[in-house]
Amino acid sequence: MGTAKRASSRVQGVSALALLCAMAILTAPGLAVGSAYAAPAAPAAPAAPAPEPEGKSLDQVRKEIEDLYRQAGTATDAYNLAVGETKAQSERIVEIAKLVVAGQDRITGLKDRAGAAARAQYRSGGLPPGAALALSDSPSAYLDGAGRLRQGEKATTDLLSELNRTQTDLERYAKDAGALWQKMEENRVKQEAAKKEIEDKIKAAEALESRLAAEEKARLIQLEQEAQYKAQTAWLSSGAMKDVKGAATDAGKRAVQFATAQMGKPYEWGAAGPGSFDCSGLTSQAWLAAGRPIPRTSQEQLRLLPKVALKDMRPGDLIIYFDDASHVGMYVGDGAMVHAPRPGRTITMAGAGSMPIKAVVRPDA
Question: Taking the model in full, what pTM does it have?
Answer without folding.
Answer: 0.67
